[in-house]
Design a protein that fits this description.
Rossmann fold, alpha/beta, hydrolase, GDSL, SGNH_plant_lipase-like, six-stranded mixed sheet, 12 helices, SGNH_hydro_sf, Esterase, about 10% strand
């Protein structure tokens, strides 16, 4: 009769075995991702990162790839961990020439927005948007790849029903454009319905092309991000919640996510054969800020790669990671935030696990 200690060890070994890549009883033949810098794997860095792209300079990528790859992290991002789990190659950027995209492609690109450029032109915000890789543009890039992935429309519907799609997050850069463009938060809030409708419409287009399993992430709690805390913080403690985050900006994120979930629910009713999953970035990151140790981290609001210890968050907008004068910590696995705008590889690993097994994806990918 095994002892309790032996039973515990056997149970732990079983859990570890279950957590190995490719061990899921639920498999996918490919992953197709759409998004912004949170999940870009190098669409702006093909043939080398341009010198003007700070996220394409060292020390980005140093802790896994040993060099910048266009990922806005010290290493991998969450889509890399999802691909590894399902035994798939790391998602190649969709703009890579001569690449086989049958096992996945990443349309995400730094600076991407949900809305098209005409939305920002009509509001005088073009200076705040430097990328034309909107959600509609990314879907068109994917459509251009489809013949090489799966052939004709009928064959594609058969193939894509066994692929995992991730659509977002989208919206973060749309709100950044307004906020950094010095528009009032009241004005920026008027954009929310249009932005979430655009995301819902994009998901519907992909469902029409044959997607079945789709994760639609919400936006992150931007009021917890060191870039916002540094630029818009102040001495009024009433502006902050109990986690040290700026309430008014998190209210914007929460409003977006509420409308997005309503849109996902309406699509689920319209497409009962689809499996639409809400990726809950907001609550996951909030919990990592509140209780970093639960997720194997030490620091919630402090930046790893930043301005050499300046300020409460180690963030200086004029000395950002990848620019002269900035430096990275030696222990990024202890941090939630890599550069004050993006997360560390350790945080993205946690995001992927939270989506695979719950509770930060509703329903969880593996459930």
């Amino acid at each position: 009769m095994p002892t309790k200690a032996l039973v515990s060890i056997l149970f732990l070994l079983l859990l570890l075995a279950m957590a190995q890549p490719g061990s899921s009883s639920q498999g996918y033949n490919a992953i197709y991702n759409f998004g912004d810098s949170i999940s870009d794997t190098g669409n702006l860095c093909l043939g080398g990162c341009p010198s003007w792209l700070t996220t394409g300079q060292p020390p980005y990528g140093k802790n896994y790839f040993g060099r910048p790859t266009g990922r806005c992290s010290d290493g991998r991002v969450f889509v890399d961990f999802l691909a590894e789990y399902f035994g798939l190659p790391l998602l190649p950027p969709s703009k890579t020439n001569g690449t086989d995209f049958k096992k996945g492609a990443n349309m995400a690109i730094v600076g991407a927005t949900a809305m098209n450029m005409d939305f920002f032109k009509s509001r005088g915000l073009t200076k705040s948007v430097w990328n034309s890789g909107s959600l509609e543009a990314q879907i068109s890039w994917f459509q251009q790849l489809m013949p090489s992935i799966c052939g004709n429309a009928n064959d594609c519907k058969s193939y894509l029903k066994n692929s995992l799609f991730i659509v977002g997050e989208f919206g973060g850069n749309d709100y950044n454009a307004g906020i950094f463009g010095r528009r009032s938060l009241d004005e920026v809030k008027t954009y929310v319905g249009q932005i979430t409708d655009k995301v819902r419409s994009g998901v519907q287009t992909l469902l029409g092309l044959g997607a079945v399993d789709v994760v639609v992430p919400g936006v992150l709690p931007i009021g917890c991000f060191p870039v916002y805390l540094t630029l818009y913080g102040g001495s009024n403690q009433g502006d902050y919640d109990g986690d040290g985050c700026l309430k008014r900006f998190n209210d914007l994120s929460g409003y977006h996510n509420e409308l997005l979930r309503q849109g996902i629910s309406s699509l689920q009713s319209k497409y009962p054969g689809a499996r639409l999953m809400y990726g809950d970035f907001y609550n996951h990151v909030t919990q990592m800020v509140r209780s970093p140790s639960i997720f194997g981290l030490k620091y919630g609001l402090r930046v790893c790669c930043g301005a050499g210890g300046q300020g409460s968050y180690n963030y200086n907008n004029e000395v950002r990671c990848g620019t002269p004068g900035a430096c990275a910590c030696g222990d990024p696995a202890d941090y939630l935030f890599w550069d004050g705008i993006h997360l560390t590889e350790a945080a993205y690993r946690s995001v992927a696990n939270g989506w695979l097994n719950g509770p930060y994806c509703i329903p969880a990918i593996l459930h």
